[in-house]
Amino acid sequence: MSKFWTIVGEVYKKNVKTASFIFTLLSPIIIIGIIGVVIYFVSDNQETPVIAVISDDNVYSEVLAKPNDHFEVNTKITTEKEAKSALEEEEIVGYLVLEAQNNQVSGTYYEQPATSDKVNAADLIALLTTEKTNEVAKELGLSQEDMAKLTSSVMIANQTIHFTDGKEDEQDEMTTTLKTVGATFLAFLSFMFIMTYASLIATEIASEKGTRIMEIILSSVTATTHFFGKLVAILLVCATQLAFYAIVAIGGFQLLKTDAFPKEITDIISDFYFSAILDGMLGASLLYFLLGLVIYSVLAAFLGSLVSKTEEVSQVIMPIMLLSMAGFYAATFAGSASGSTLYKIGSYFPFFTPMMMPIRIANGTITTGGIVLGLVLMIVFATLMTYFTLMMYRSNVLVYSDAGVFITIKTSWSVLRNQKRK
Amino acid sequence: MLEVKGLTKTFGKLIAVDNMSFTIPDGQILGLIGQNGAGKTTTFRLILRFLTEDRGEVLWNGEKLTNEDYNLIGYLPEERGLYPKISIEEQIYYFAKLRGKSKQEIKPLIDFWMDKFQVKGKKTDKIKSLSKGNQQKVQLICTLIHQPKLVILDEPFSGLDPVNAELLKQGIIDLKKEGSCVIFSTHRMEHVEEICDELIMLKNGEMVLNGTIKAIRESFGRKKLYLECPLSLQEVQELPGVKQVSFAPEGGYLLQLEDEQFGPEIFEMVTKNGYIPTFSQQPPSIEEIFKMKAGDHHE
């Protein structure tokens, strides 16, 4: 096994075995699980409110007494007096007094103020109206078809037309929204991964420098081998996490499609929605995400190599936190204005691209040329930064200074110039 | 064989190593002494190519050291470093792999080395559970287990108790027997005298002493004389060429002579009445030379 893979293996093994990594891996699942359990108990505990119906006409009280999702009818209460005392005793949440005369149905619904289990009067009206319509139809001798004709409402579909490059874009509003949701989620993922892995890689390097293990390693392998070994190992740890989430997401999606869940939920997460959201996350956006991880990791490695104590890591990686946070906030809060010049310019800044660009793609405010330009800029920037970091890395990791980051950079630079002079 | 020729390194205006030259043949041990900041660690870093020299060169068997030679090196840095969270054997495997050895090659050797340095604990124990001294021994095993040909030890004795220092000393002598070039730095002069073939003392990057222990000591002249004889202090002070007299801690007198040539004359005088228990004319110890040289300001 080459020395490069020895380093990759060691760093990878060390990091995936930590409790914090396993917790990071499982935390979204745990959180979703907790939310699920809470929803389950909340919905289960909700009792169906009980009401009473006082009516001379049995037709209507029978309609309301049929089992429904909104309320139950206590059929034992038949007089207003009984109902009133039941309401006072809180046996029922309200009662309806109905009068039906000459096809006119009217009534009053009595309830206590501010009870938690309210019955919506609209539900009562809807049920009664349907029944009344049926009654009238029967009287007029209308057939089922005639009824259907009568009650069918006017359909208006909503379609938004986008014009991109002077061409009509057939994407509808819904798809755009869903894509944006996907893109925003990706921006959040970027931010989260950058926060986690930037500090991981910086700590990894600073601790080796601080414990002087670095000196032993640099007397065994070149600084370049070591640097790339670390970088690749941490990116592999990151890939492990992503792969795990992908498997869980796909598994969860498959599970949702089975009959184990009510139709309402499976409908929401139908293939259409899912693929639209995914659409906002894949393709060029995913490339931005991955390149972003590389850029931030390299920067983190550089910053980590500047300090000699792990305690100083959180301080030194502040710029990473600020940059990624700025990018993330720009994407989430200014995303609706992704067509603005300022947003466009910002999205080409390599540190912001991974968060801001996917929103532009989702909103269709970017041309294919722009997407490619963004990618090229990121690749060029990543290459330059890796080169610069490598150049400084070797001297950085051997300069131990408590004097602060800038002094370290200065010392390191002079060491470097010394090397170059030769 | 390691050859260092005219090695010079400056950091800005500071001359860290100044025109340094020495040779360590295979199977020889070179001791590097000097006060803190004299340039010892910089010398090691130049040999290891952590730093690039301004002038001069470092040759291994007549050729410049390259990436291919990494596997020949055993390096113990001044401040020790191990991964606290992994086990002893994992640590040893990792560093050995970085020196181009496989796990299979190293596995059978671990017990031998742990035994040799009397490491307390099992090889599956985590590094952080070990005492500082034991961690240091593990570090030494990591430095030596791949049978390096060029061994560089920066302050290997610091932090070791006398028993463990003895084990390390034996370890270094074993390396010599196996034909390795060993270079180490220390502040403990007794180790230098006991195990070094050659010695270099650095002061502000400059070599102020260089040679075998014997030659260096002799070059200062046998101006020290231990004397046990029936003469009184007064009489001893009046002997020829005596600069200063004090009572030796182990009994008798300790004389400082103006020149070693006074020796035979004094010997004649103190033995004219026959037997005396001690007459020992010695050159200064390395420690005394060290203090003397370190104190010189005119250089």
Automatic annotation (TrEMBL), chain A:
The keyword Transmembrane applies. Its main location: membrane. The chain crosses the membrane at residues 21-42, 185-206, 227-253, 273-304, 316-335, 341-359, 371-391, 397-416. GO terms for cellular component: plasma membrane. InterPro entries: ABC-2_transporter_component, ABC2_TM. Residues 20-386 form the ABC-2 type transporter transmembrane domain. GO terms for molecular function: ABC-type transporter activity. Keywords: Cell membrane, Membrane, Transmembrane, Transmembrane helix. It is a multi-pass membrane protein. This is ABC-2 type transport system permease protein.
UniProtKB/TrEMBL annotation, chain B:
InterPro entries: AAA+_ATPase, ABC_transporter-like_ATP-bd, ABC_transporter-like_CS, ABC_Transporter_VariousFunc, DrrA1/2-like_C, P-loop_NTPase. Transmembrane segments: none annotated. It comes from Isobaculum melis. It comes from the Bacteria. The lineage of its organism: Bacteria, Bacillati, Bacillota, Bacilli, Lactobacillales. This is ABC-2 type transport system ATP-binding protein. The keyword Cytoplasm does not apply. Keywords: ATP-binding, Nucleotide-binding, Transport. Residues 2-229 form the ABC transporter domain. The keyword ATP-binding applies. SMART domains: AAA. Pfam families: ABC_tran (PF00005), DrrA1-3_C (PF13732).
